[in-house]
Amino acid sequence: MTRRAVGFLAGLLSGIAAGYVWWTREQARHQRALYSRRPMRRLAALGWISGQPSAESMVMLREYLGWEQNPVLQRRARRLLARFENALH
Predict the structure, then answer these.
(1) Percentage of the chain with pLDDT > 70?
(2) CB atoms < 10 A from the CB of 64, how many?
(3) Which residue in 11, 32, 46, 72 is a FRET match for 40, CA 20 to 30 A apart?
């Protein structure tokens, strides 16, 4: 493998690692920002909720679906709700 290819791979892996660290921090920081004005914060909150399957999370997602207007976030919330319903019933 050439030196240039090694440099490219190192940069690529560094970028992926930095992106993963950033996204993990966003999720932790905005875990309860489900009703934020900012869609990325709501997406991060949905990401955090995805790891918390419970009856409480299902109620929260149902309420959220009545409020959310962004179709992408609605679809994500519906998928989470269906997954939780299957897992908990």
Answers:
(1) 92
(2) 21
(3) 11
